[in-house]
Amino acid sequence: MMKQKFKLEKYNKLIGGHVSIRDHIYFAPERANSFNFNTFQIFVKSNMQWKKNDNLLEDDFLKFKENTEKYGIKKTVAHASYLINLASENEELLKKSIDDVKYELELCNKLEINYMVIHPGSNSDKKNAMKNIMNILNNIDYGYTELLIENSSGKGNTLPGSVEEMVEMLDYSKNINLCLDVCHFFSYGYNIRDEYNEVMDNLFSMVNRERIKVLHLNDSKYDAGEKKDRHENIGYGYIGDKGFYNLMNDNNFNNIPMIMETPDGDNYYIKNLSKLLEFIGE
What we know:
This protein is of the alpha/beta class. It is built from ten helices and twelve strands. α5 packs parallel to α6.
């Protein structure tokens, strides 16, 4: 166990996964530590309901911060509700989405979480949607916690999918950055398995590396270009060992949270982490 933690530090890697907040939110850092993670991601409230997390007390915030330090967690990430659609033309849904972003950011600030990741929304009028989404986010006070938009697999009208869409959205704000989900990226058509250098050279020629603050480290149940968002455990999908070897040996992603959201996470995290570590320097 200690050997794995040493390797994370040795190779300048921050690797973790999405962990549960069941029972008490302040148990999350301990759960992350049990998998030998030095970073992790949580939901601060129900990800599929609008209702607030009214059970949180000041003591919960304090213990969460204490345990984050106690268990050697370097960076913390929250993922916002999946219900949010800041591009919706439905006024009620749009208002709920904006209110939820503000509320979740408030909790993240109290917990001193470093980043909050959001699926910004979808709309068939993508051009206007991207501008509207970023105008909304630019007018939200997010305080200590940095707000990140996550790229999509391109399914339906979800934004942003292509690198060009990522660039367009980021150009609307200097303060809001990017969470790059490698499964979504691959599913959209960026083949990080067979064309890694070409794909990444293109990405970094358009997106400043410093604006990629978090990686979601998921394999894909579907091949490149199929535009389907289905995560798989590391090495068992179409990205495969070759794709993750490429990612783990790319120093552009040193010292940023690499978060797994893989199926049945708790039962496979240690195996997934061991596999990832085997790729480094191989």
